[in-house]
Amino acid sequence: MKMKTLEFRSEVRPNSDTDDLYIFDGIGEYKDFDGTWDGWGPERLREELETCPHDKLTVHINSNGGSTFQGVAIHNMLKASGKEITVSIEGVAASAASFIVMAGHKIQMGTASMLMIHNCWTFAIGNAKELRKTADDMDKIMVGQKKVMLERSGGKITAEQIDELMEAETYLTAEECMEYGWCDEIVDSGKPEDDDGAVSGLKVQIDSVAVAEAITQAMAKPDKREAETSKDVTPDIEAKTKSFWDFF
Predict the structure, then answer these.
(1) What is the reported pLDDT for 236?
(2) How many CA atoms lie within 13 A of 102 on its CB side?
(3) Backbone phi, psi, residue 17, to 5°
(4) Residue-wise DSSP of 182-226
(5) CB burial class (10 A; 0-12, 13-18, 19+) of residue 1?
(6) How many other β-carbons are positioned within 10 Å of the β-carbon of residue 112?
(7) Rg of the chain over CA atoms, in angstroms?
(8) Which 3 state secondary structure label does DSSP give 55?
(9) 159 and 148 Cβ atoms separated by less than 8 Å
(10) How do residues 194-239 score in pLDDT, each as one tens digit?
(11) How far apart, in Å, are the Cα atoms of 226 and each of 222, 223, 232?
């Protein structure tokens, strides 16, 4: 049985005026040979937005990208939703996912998070004339995206610089994104607090039983400590993430 480890889902926070949307998968809806769907696109986004009743929405992204036009559609739908959009890059927002980021009224990044931008690519078959037309079409496809990125920068980067970064297929750190106007806040995991005093940042899931055992061990103060009877208690924490998109 095929199992998915990454996902696209929404959550309604209790006692909050903000909803959460998680894009942790490839961008675009694709059908496998067995007839099942992988990735997520605008149709699923439409369904998820219907479950988000509040005017504020935080979009959490960790995606290596996918379909250019489905990324554009998700970007446009978020912009047209009428909601106050905060985008949080949890790991990487690459390729088509980087364009979704630009829909945020506010963009947050973790200290180690990254944004990857590049020119779109494709496969093409045909004669010389057809291949030249494909190249021209690809240049045209990028015009609108570069314009949106330029506007989002607030004048902190030029169109020529964006061309150079995309041509080179560039990974940008949180600090670089701040410099270029594509990040408004760098969130150091576990330290900053929001207005309600709640700790902001990445959520880490751990083995609570193992941690409790470790605390009990640390609190024990025997009169004699013998090396041969001492024990190291280490929480058994295992993170398993695997995605087809990790290889692109």
Answers:
(1) 40
(2) 26
(3) -100, 15
(4) S-SEEE-TT--B-TTSPBPS------HHHHHHHHHHHH---SS--
(5) exposed
(6) 12
(7) 22
(8) coil
(9) no
(10) 444 443 443 333 344 444 555 555 555 554 444 443 444 344 433 3
(11) 10, 10, 13
User: CATH top-level class for 8-205?
Assistant: alpha beta
Q: Identify how many contiguous H helices and E strands the chain contains and give both numbers.
A: 7, 10
Token look-up 């250019």 returns 68
Q: Are 94 and 62 in contact (CB under 8 A)?
A: no
Q: Tell me the angle at which helices 128-153 and 159-167 cross, rounded to the nearest 10 degrees.
A: 130
Q: How far apart are CA 174 and CA 52, in angstroms?
A: 28
Strand spans (E) along 101-232: 106-110, 114-117, 170-173, 185-187
* Residues pairing with 160 in the sheet: none
Tokens of 237: 């924490």
Residue 155, helix vs strand vs coil: coil
Other C-beta atoms lying within 10 Å of the C-beta of residue 113: 24
Beta-carbon contacts of residue 121 (< 8 Å; ≥ 6 apart): 138
Confidence of residue 31 (pLDDT cuts 50, 70, 90): low
Where does residue 174 fall: left (phi above 0), alpha (psi -120 to 50 degrees), or beta otherwise? alpha
pLDDT value at residue 47: 87
pLDDT at residue number 200:
41
> Would strands 30-31 and 18-23 be described as parallel, antiparallel, or unpaired?
unpaired
